[in-house]
Amino acid sequence: TVRTWDVNNDKKHKSVFKPRTFQGKKVTPTCCAYSRDGKLIAAGCQDGSIQIWDRNLSVHTKFHCKQAHTPGSDPSCLAFSYDGTTLASRGGDDTLKTWDIRNFKKPLNVATGLTTYFTMTDCCFSPDDKLVLTGTSVKKNEGNGKLVFFDRATFQKVYEVEVTNASVVRCLWHPKLNQIMVGTANGLAKVYYDPLKSHRGAKLCVVKSQRKERHAETLTQDYIITPHALPMFREARQRSTRKQLEKDRLDPMKSNKPEPPVSGPGRGGRVAAHGGTLSSFIVKNIALDKTDDSNPREAILRHAKEASENPYWVAPAYSKTQPETLFHEDSEEDEEADKEPEWKKRKI
């Protein structure tokens, strides 16, 4: 089949065209092409026929040439001209033919003796629609593959280019760049261009001028230096590695002594040796904790001397409104209330 696909959805085809013989039997297409305006679809089939459909009518062919090429020769390429009136076909029977779509029964021109060994040998029109291009094949070590140019009107061979000592498989004449891209059977890819008529493409890298060498780079003088001839050229003696390591060990920037292990309980963010579990760590710290905070008054008064000498929190806040510190004095009622048992205080 020949199918058209929606480029926005690669899993859904739009139309299906089924090439058939005049007897209605199925036949396999080997190449296909769109017309320049996108309204016609052409296919070359294994039985040598060329069938053309309207893109919106996929059932019956619009043009059908029964024996365009030798049956079983597998046409390799179809190409429409830029004006949309001529079709070029490259057959597996070593021929190149042009067809008038308006009169599709007989070919306009035929060129023979164009050897091809590949089922994808291309043919194409020049951007100005005046020339038809195709490639030829050769056996190994039996000549060179060529690009052959034919005049579209007279179909006389205008020019041929020997590409390499292998077959020319693919060729493309780019319409905007006006350059010819060629792929060969030995893995080469070549681009042919015209210095005046081509645009961009290969010219972007080919026409770049080589960088001129600077005069200073070419006229450089070599200096010969005799080692140890003068004191300024003498190399410093290499010190022994052992002495350098001992010196680096004394340098606090290059060598940093690790902190010794904690021998007592953990303090200051460091933890002493203890069991592997969290419970053993907590029990050990509780047992080794020597601070006694059972009397909160004494715990606070331990810092009274430092607070009076270097007041930081409370005293600066009252430095302007209450420079002299006044403490609350307990009355007799407060002293008696302090002496009462705890359960009475709660009741009150």
Q: What does this protein look like?
A:
The protein is of the alpha+beta class and 348 residues long. Helix content is 16%, strand content 26%. It contains 8 helices and 17 strands. The protein has helices at residues 203-206, 215-218, 241-250, 278-288, 296-301, 304-309, 332-339, 342-347, and strands at 2-5, 13-17, 29-34, 40-45, 50-54, 63-65, 77-80, 86-90, 96-100, 103-111, 123-125, 131-135, 145-151, 157-164, 168-173, 180-184, 189-192. A 4-stranded antiparallel β-sheet has the order 3-4-5-6, with no helix packed on it. It has a 4-stranded antiparallel β-sheet with strand order 7-8-9-10, with no helix packed on it. A 4-stranded antiparallel β-sheet has the order 11-12-13-14, with no helix packed on it. Strand 11 and strand 12 (131-135) form a beta hairpin. The longest helix is centred in the last third of the chain and has 11 residues, at 278-288. The N and C termini lie far apart (104 Å). The model has no long low-confidence stretch (mean pLDDT 78).
Main features:
alpha+beta; 8 helices; four-stranded antiparallel beta sheet; 348 residues
Number of strands: 17
Overall morphology: elongated
Distance between the termini: 104 Å
- Order of strands across the main sheet: 3-4-5-6
Q: What is the average per-residue confidence, as pLDDT, rounded to a whole number? A: 78
Structure classification:
alpha+beta
Q: How many helices does DSSP assign?
A: 8
Rg over C-alpha atoms, rounded to the nearest angstrom: 49 Å
Helicity range of the residues?
10-25%
What kind of sheet is the major sheet?
4 strands, antiparallel
As a percent range, the share of strand residues is: 25-35%
Succession of helices and strands: EEEEEEEEEEEEEEEEEHHHHHHHH
User: Poorly predicted ranges (pLDDT <50, ≥5 residues)?
Assistant: none
